[in-house]
User: What shape does this take?
Amino acid sequence: MMFNKRGVVVMLSSSSDLSSSVSSFQNDAKSLGDDDDDIDIDVDAAAASSSRRRSEKHPHEKIVFYTHSLCPYAHRVRLCLDELHLLREEGGKVDIVDIDLSNKPKFYIDMTNGRGVVPLIEFPETGELVSESLRINERLWEEHYSDDSFSLTSSSSSSSPSSYEDAKRFANACDQKFVSLGLQAIGGGWSFDTTRNERTLERFEREIWEIDALIEKHNDDDNSNNKRKVFLFGGKRASLADVAIYPFAERFNLALQHFQGYTLGNVEYYHHPSPPSSSSSSSSKHHQQPRHFQKWLKTMQTQPSSLRCAVKNQDALLKAWSRTKRLDYFDYETADYINP
Assistant: This one.
């Protein structure tokens, strides 16, 4: 399905937003998918208007997902839609509208009250608009989760209200922790730096160790099964927490390797202290590297939902990053996950 407008293509592609973490990045970063001036917006007012009803005579019959396929915020929503099977059901329940953020169409600027940011979800029948990736994912979960078909958030083998609340709390905190520290590590804000900041990387590694402990707590420690998937809160499928941080982990890993020769998950600056009773070689090995985090990253990299919206030409993406020195370069020039 495809139609052309100025700056718009409707297609099955993927993924961007003014996240709720904009206030934490005001001093050193701009909001992805938006203009530099918008970093000074009233965050409370933006949050208040992020969920509103749009008066239309003929609302859509499907969910409409306004996105940009290179943005990590919109990537979150794309993963959630896929994990909820909303993109794979016969006939489809979602229309995807890819917005060119370097040439925003007038209808979209008007629809978003001049902000022009993605992601944005328009719900069917009511025409209700919901923005901000974490808010969107919570809403999608609440409306489309089916315990009979799969477990999106589960502790051990079955889902539970407590595990969902834990995943939601983690997701809502990750922009101020994992995402913020990762952005500082790659260069500070949305730009890239080829020089390592060891102090920043040490803080980032401390956060990775915290996530490693979380994964260990919620997953069986079965080293004999290398093919076993590992998710942040256990279970057989990704949770709201997994889809909240993976788009950034994917980009941080690629950028740090390319620009600084650093591999995400292979700690070099902060080594987790071994417990006093630790004497076995296996325990010692565990505390040298966050192997649970490493296994989680590999799990998410091979998830079908991740593979379906992965950049098709990684070399071209790296060239664009090297040329522009910005993670959000697509805010200023036309690009997408097929032609980055």
Notes: The domain at 4-144 is CATH 3.40.30.10 (Glutaredoxin). Confidence is low (pLDDT under 50) at residues 1-58, 148-159, 278-286.
